[in-house]
Structures are given as C-alpha cells and as structure tokens.
Amino acid sequence: MLTLKIEKYKVDTTNGTLQYNISGNGKPNIVLIIGGSGPIEGWMKILPAISESSSVFSYNRFGVAGSDKPKVRHFTRSINNRGI
Description:
Layout lengths: L7 E6 L2 E8 L5 E4 L14 H5 L3 E6 L14 H7 L3
Parallel strand pairs: 3-4
Antiparallel strand pairs: 1-2, 2-4
C-alpha cells in the first residue's frame, strides 16, 4: 500500500478560510468532494493511487477540520427567507 502525506493549505474566501489539499501532478485533474461531513483524510484509501497519475484537489467543507465555520448557515435558508 502506498503512503501519502497530506499537505494542507488554506485560502481566505468571503465566507471564511477554506482548507484544501493538492496532490499529484498529471492529467486528468480530479476534484474529490466528500458527501458527508468528513475531513480530507477520508480520501486516504484512494488518494495515493490516483495521485500517481493525476492532479487531485480535495478540501474540507466549511465547518469541518481546518476550515472555518460557515458565516451563512445555508444558502437554501437564505433563499427561503426571501420568499423565493
């Protein structure tokens, strides 16, 4: 089994700081979007293998691990509050 150290980076956005990882250096470019509320480390079983031949971007959603808690609770709530 391949091992891969996840190097985490941060970027400031209008909604707060978002933590992300970029692994590998190839094509295609792959974006991993976790379906629940898990952190980047949830991809560790597949990240080493797909990073061998691709560039892989993964991130912690707002409120998860090193990303800030979201400033806006939910976009859909904002829409519903406007009566849309």
